[in-house]
Amino acid sequence: MTYSMKLKEEICSQDISRVEIFAELSAIIRYDANIKENSISLTFENAAIARRVYKDIKATFNLSAHITVRNQKRFRSKQIYILEIKDHTLLLLERLNIYQNNTFLKMNRNYLDTKEEMAAFVRGAFLVIGSLNDPATSGYHLEFVFSKENDALFFNNLLHEMKFDSKMLKRNDKFMVYLKSAEEISDMIRMFQASNSLFYFEDVRIYRDHKNMVNRLNNCEIANQEKTLQAGIKQIEDINYLKENDLIDLLDDKTKIIMEYRLKYPESSYQELANIIGMETGYVIGKSGINHHFIKIKKLIETHKKAK
User: Fold this and answer.
1) What is the model's pLDDT at position 110?
2) pTM exceeding 0.85
3) How many folded domains does the chain comprise?
4) Does residue 198 form part of some domain?
5) Single residue among 126, 160, 193 that ends a domain in this structure
6) How confident is the model at residue 77, as a pLDDT?
7) What is the largest CA-CA distance in the chain?
8) Rounded to the nearest 5°, which phi and psi values hold at 199?
9) Residue 225 contacts by C-beta under 8 Å, 6 or more apart in sequence?
10) What per-residue confidence (pLDDT) applies to 199?
11) Structural domain of residue 121, as residue ranges?
């Protein structure tokens, strides 16, 4: 079972208020139902979602719904659940703000009065047209796929009002509203009150963030080591130039000590070189001091080359 399906099953295991049921069912039927003159049918691949919708319609509206289970063998064998409502369908649609006066209604923000209703509406949409990548196997991505552009526009604006930075794009003949931010996806799972799914998501997120940080530190350390090595090679070339041109005696004794220890430890950083010199000779010097001596060496070489 995918992570997305586990999240949906966890959502379906929760009890919600009557007001939330109205908002959740409104999204489910509006975005996923096949609505005809005297019937409403919904098709689910998840038994938990089918049971939840069946229970909520029966308990809230006292309407009977018929469930048919079929085996689908296209690509892979799986069961699908078809829920059909044939009694008082217009009443149901009117109470869910989907149909009124022989006209299908566009979704209106005024139908959602509270934060709880807004969250329930988003939750209902996720159950039927939403999906979430497993963070352990791919990037962070939560999406809702709509058949109609107006529905996607309303939903995207609703998420913005709820402080989610969602984006919208057209994909083939569908319209997708999605989140890519791990923090915002985590906030949405928290809004769904799916604690087990949230703990898993956060565990993976922490692991990935830690792994990325370690990789960045390793890359930085490798880059610093490479920089130190290249600097050491260049400094040894400068020292050899001084020897070949009999320029060593033009330098003071402390600079000569620095040169001696650079030849002994070509791969050491300035700090490592300073520590070694301090322990072995008693000459206390820091990184900036080491650098100062090599600047002195470089200037001597430049002066000599110009004089040639």
Assistant:
1) 81
2) no
3) 2
4) no
5) 193
6) 65
7) 106
8) -60, -45
9) none
10) 92
11) 3-193
Q: Distance of CA 149 to CAs 24, 28, 156, 174, 199, Å?
A: 20, 17, 10, 8, 34
Residue 288 lies in a domain: yes
Cα–Cα nearest to 27, from 159, 212, 141: 159
Q: Where residue 87 sits, what CATH number does that domain have? A: 3.10.28.10
Round to whole Å and give the CA distance between 247 and 254. Answer: 15
Mean pLDDT in consecutive groups of 10 residues from the start of the chain, 308 residues: 91 91 93 86 90 89 83 72 86 85 78 91 96 87 94 94 94 93 94 93 83 75 78 86 86 88 86 88 88 88 81
Q: Are residues 257 and 174 in the same domain?
A: no
Beta-carbon count within 10 A of 129 CB: 21
Q: 133: which residues sit within 8 A by CB, 6+ positions away? A: 3, 4, 139, 140, 141, 142
* 47 found inside a domain: yes
Residue 96 to residues 82, 170, 230, Cα–Cα distance (Å): 20, 27, 71
Residue 261 covered by a domain: yes
169 and 266 fall within a common domain: no
Task: Give the chain as a DSSP string.
Answer: --HHHHHHHHHHTS---HHHHHHHHHHHHHHH-EE-SS-EEEEES-HHHHHHHHHHHHHHH----EEEEEEE-SSS-EEEEEEEE-SSHHHHHHHTTSEETTEEPPP-GGG--SHHHHHHHHHHHHHHHEEE--TTTS---EEEEESSHHHHHHHHHHHHHTT---EEEEETTEEEEEE--HHHHHHHHHHTT-HHHHHHHHHHHHHHHHHHHHHHHHHHHHHHHHHHHHHHHHHHHHHHHHHHTT-GGGS-HHHHHHHHHHHH-TT--HHHHHHHHHHHH-----HHHHHHHHHHHHHHHHHHHHH-
Instruction: Please indicate, yes or no, whether residues 237 and 144 belong to a single structural domain of this protein.
Output: no
